[in-house]
Every structure is written in structure tokens, then in C-alpha cells.
Amino acid sequence: MTEQSSILDDLNDRSREVFRRVVEGYLESGEPVGSRTLTRLMSEKVSAATIRNVMQDLEFLGLLNSPHVSAGRIPTQQGLRMFVDGLLEVRDLEANDREMIDATVAGSGDVTGMLDRIGAALSGATRGASLVLAPKHEAPIKHIEFVGLGHDRALVVLVFADGRVENRIFTPPPGQTPSSMREAANFLNALIEGKTISDLRGVIQREIAARRQEIDVLARAMVEDGLAVWTDTGDRHERLIVRGRANLLGGETPQEDLDRIRELFDDLERKRDIAEFLELTEAGEGVRIFIGSENKLFSLSGSSLVVSPYMNADRKIIGAVGVIGPTRLNYGRIVPIVDYTAQLVGRVISDRSER
């Protein structure tokens, strides 16, 4: 049992209801909730003085906070976490949200285009910002070619069986020649048919070791350097699609909060800490909620993230979709939106890969 669940279990019915109504009121309005407001909402008739005493006890437990003297209370980050884990009532997905997501996913085009539309739709529907982590392209490879661009630059061209072409620049071994580049390409093309980049990693290393005498030293280096750009862990950072920044920068947001939100998006655009974020997202199935400092990427901005991974036909996590917003997000509505979107995206990608 966690410390937070223990605290929640120890609350009596009145304290639990006061806590729940303060959090729900704050999530709805963004404003502190006072004792007089609660007297009209409580299921039993309770005086404002009694409610103030309960709120003081909840503040002592670290669940509520008073932002101003004589003001109402708002939940702390610990309080929000306890509410989300133990008291949040997740609604059924609303019909108009389902129709919007279905229409967005059903549009024609490639997976990247679909995910870009998903990001725009999520930010519009939730009035937050959206994060979409696109899957790596794992179609079988049809052809590889090396093209020299100078003494210290070369291009590797990868043609996939589904017609997609990717080009990446890398630094080749010193002294490469047109013949060594052709030999390297021929070596790879003899092995790659029907294989994905993931399939190739072990195969190439074993073949190079077994045929060391058959492949020129320079050609072998071209193979190793050229393939390295496809297996570089930095590549996964480039799969991030962010939409809806303006949603978090408008309205009556105080300047200090605006500065923190801008810093968050600057970090996102530089892909800072995305690797760590991906590991957290990919740690398990289902919707996950990160509140404020629970994730280093969002600690300074005070934002929350609702995110869910999506899977391919083999039940392997290949990406994620999520919504960023202030800590007073409408979690009850956004959780089912993110959950449904992730499941639908996974099904569509799986169906397309099986065609």
C-alpha cells in the first residue's frame, strides 16, 4: 500500500468528501474553493466553520494549500496525485469526441500524416497541447545505396518495400572510393530482401565476421558506418510531434507561468529528456498521468501530461499519444479521449502493416 492510499483510507467520510469537492471545484474553475461554497455542495448539512476545520486538517496532511491569506483552498501536487489515483471518476467517452477521433484517423494518407492530424485534433478537442510519438518505420527493405557527397560526407539511401524512401547523411571512413561504396551496397543488398532494419542488425554483424576476407576493409567500414545512422539512439528523439502550443500560452495566464510553459516547449523542441520520457511511457500499458515534478521534463512548467502508448499487431509498444495542460486538467474527460485514440491508432497501424 502506498503512503498516499494510506492517507486516503485514513480519512473519514466527511474529510474525504471535502477533499474531493475542493479538487473537483478547482479542476472545473481553476480557482480556490472556499468553505461557504462547500456548504452548498456537501451531501450533509455542515457549517462553514466545520468545513474550515476539515480543510485545515487536509492542509496539515499536505493535500490542500491556501494560495492567499483568508482564501479558499486548492489541491497540492500530492493532493492531485491522490485524487487521480483514488477518487477520479473517469467518464465514458463522449459521442462527439469519439466521432472526431474516428474521422481524424479515417482520413487518407500515410501514417505520419495521420499522426499529425491526430495531434492537431487532440489539442483542439482538449484545449491543451498534444504530444504524439510516431513509430519508427519498420517495413521490409528493398534496396540500399551509398552516394558520395565529398571526402567527409556520404548519403545512404534506403528504399522500403512499401515504396517509402529515406535518405540520411553520415561521415564515411576516410579514403572511400566509388568502388568501395558499390561493394558495400552490393554486400548489403544481397542480404536485406524481406528484412527490416531491426532484423538486419545481428545478420550484418555475423556476415561481416564470417566473410571478413571477402569484403574489402573500406567497404566493411562503409557498411558499419552507414548502418550506424539507422540504429543511433538519437533517432528516436526525432519522432515527436507537438501541436497546440498556443492553447497553453493564451488567456489570463500570469507572466511567470507563461515563461515556464515557454521553457517547457523549448525543451520539447530541442527533444531534451525525451528518451527518459519514452522509457516512462513505454513502461506499461494503459493511460498514465504525470503531474508536475513527477517527470523532470514537466517539473518547471507545473504542467500535467496524460499519455497512453499504442501497440502494433505483435503487442509491442511503438509510440504514444498524449495531452499536456495545466495541473487542473479535466482528467475525467481527457483520460478516455487519450485511451481511445491510442487504441484506435494502434489498430489502424496494425491493419496497414498486414495489408
Commentary on this structure:
The structure is a single chain. 48% of the residues lie in helices and 17% in strands. The strands form 3 sheets. Strands 7-3-10-9-8 form a 5-stranded antiparallel beta sheet, with helices on both faces. Strand 1 and strand 2 (74-75) form a beta hairpin. Residues 233-237 have low confidence and may be disordered. The chain starts with a helix and ends with a helix. The protein is built from 13 helices and 10 strands. It has 355 residues and is an alpha+beta fold. Helix 6 (95-106) runs antiparallel to helix 7 (111-126) and helix 8 (178-192) packs across helix 10 (217-231). It has 3 domains: 3-86, Arc Repressor Mutant, subunit A, CATH 1.10.10; 95-128 and 244-353, GAF domain (Beta-Lactamase), CATH 3.30.450.40; 141-234, Heat-inducible transcription repressor hrca homolog, domain 3 (Enolase-like, domain 1, 2-Layer Sandwich), CATH 3.30.390.60.
- The count of β-strands is 10
Spatial separation of the terminal alpha carbons: 46 Å
CATH superfamily of the largest domain: GAF domain
Shape: elongated
Q: Give me the strand/helix succession.
A: HHHHEEHHHEEEEHHHEHHEEEH
- Give the integer mean of the pLDDT values: 80
Structural Rg? 26 Å
The largest sheet is: 5 strands, antiparallel
Give the CATH topology of the largest domain. Answer: Beta-Lactamase
Kindly give the count of domains. 3
CATH class of the largest domain: Alpha Beta
Q: State the helix count.
A: 13
Low-confidence stretches: 233-237
Q: What is the topology, as strand order, of the major beta sheet?
A: 7-3-10-9-8
Annotated CATH architecture of the largest domain: 2-Layer Sandwich
| Category by helix and strand content | alpha+beta
Q: What helical percentage do the residues reach?
A: 40-55%
